[in-house]
Every structure is written in C-alpha cells, then in structure tokens.
C-alpha cells in the first residue's frame, strides 16, 4: 500500500473493502504510515510485525502484516503479534491523529527531507549551495 503522508490516513471504509476482497488466510503488508490502531484493528484483528534480526530495522519497524486470521505456525519465529500493549511505537492511536493537520504533517516531512539532505551533504553525495 502507498505512503499515506502523500494522501492522508486509511479510512474505515477502505479497510472494510480491503478485508472483503482478501482471500481466506490472506495477508496485507503495509507501511505503518497512515494506519490508525483502532480503525485497522477493527477490520484486521491479527496484526504482526517482523522480528527476525536478519531483516532490516526499517522493515521490522515500519511494515506490518494485517490478517483476519492468525498467521500459521510456520511464521511464529519471525513474526510477533501487535496488540494494545505494544502498539504505540508502530501505530497512530486516535488521540495522536486528532491533533494532526496537513500543516503539521508537512512540517514533519520537511524535517525528514532536511535531515536527509544534511546527511547526504556530509557524505558529499550532493553539493552544498
């Protein structure tokens, strides 16, 4: 699924449609950006993230797997279920979403680009102005 900073948050209706067309035992992989815990969990009660240390930190921290059913046992060593006790580091919760505006999200994105540009300049990957 796409990066939601470019278009907003996934809606309940979108996730309901996604759940409806998902085949039995199907899994949706998604960036955590744009996902609200309450909206997502109401449609996909089984949410996992990768815990395999050989997988990149970005993938382990920023990609989740959504399902209507538990993952099969063969995946248990590489994936951990996310629940209400460990969701803050991965998902927006409703109280975090209500304070967001396009202006605040734009500021966050600008900050990310600025830091990335500074790191690239330090490594001489792009010329300084």
Name some characteristics of this structure.
4 strands; 2 domains; 129 residues; single chain; 4-stranded antiparallel beta sheet; alpha+beta; globular; 5 helices; 37% helix
Task: Describe the model.
There is one protein chain. This protein is α+β, with helices and mostly antiparallel strands. Helices cover 37% and strands 13% of the residues. A 4-stranded antiparallel β-sheet has the order 1-3-2-4. Helix 1 packs parallel to helix 2 (37-43).
Blueprint (SSEs and pairs):
Blueprint: H1 12-21, E1 28-31, H2 37-43, E2 46-50, H3 57-62, E3 63-67, E4 79-81, H4 94-97, H5 102-122
Helix pairs in contact: 1-2
Question: Can you summarize this structure?
Answer:
The protein has 129 residues and is an alpha+beta fold. Helices cover 37% and strands 13% of the residues.
Classify the secondary structure makeup into a structural class.
alpha+beta
Q: DSSP strand (E) fraction?
A: 5-15%
Q: How many discrete domains?
A: 2
Q: For the report, how would you describe the main beta sheet? A: 4 strands, antiparallel
Number of helices: 5
Query: Widest sheet: strand order?
Result: 1-3-2-4
Q: What percentage of residues falls in helices of 4 or more residues?
A: 25-40%
Q: What kind of assembly state do the chains in view correspond to?
A: single chain
Elements, N to C (H/E):
HEHEHEEHH
Low-confidence stretches: none
The average pLDDT value, as a whole number, equals 77
Number of strands: 4
Gross morphology is globular
Indicate the radius of gyration in whole angstroms.
17 Å
């Amino acid at each position: 699924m796409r990066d939601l900073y470019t278009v907003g948050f996934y809606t309940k209706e979108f996730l309901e449609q996604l759940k409806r067309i998902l085949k039995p035992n199907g899994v949706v992989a998604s960036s955590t950006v744009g996902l609200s815990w309450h909206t997502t969990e109401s449609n996909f009660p089984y949410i996992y993230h990768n815990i395999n240390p050989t997988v990149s930190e970005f993938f382990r921290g920023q990609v989740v797997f959504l399902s209507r059913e538990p993952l099969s046992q063969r995946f248990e060593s590489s994936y951990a279920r996310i629940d209400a006790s460990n969701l803050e580091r991965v998902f927006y919760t409703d109280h975090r979403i209500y304070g967001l505006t396009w202006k605040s999200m734009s500021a966050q994105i600008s900050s990310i680009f600025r830091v990335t540009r500074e790191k690239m300049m330090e490594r001489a990957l792009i010329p300084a102005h």
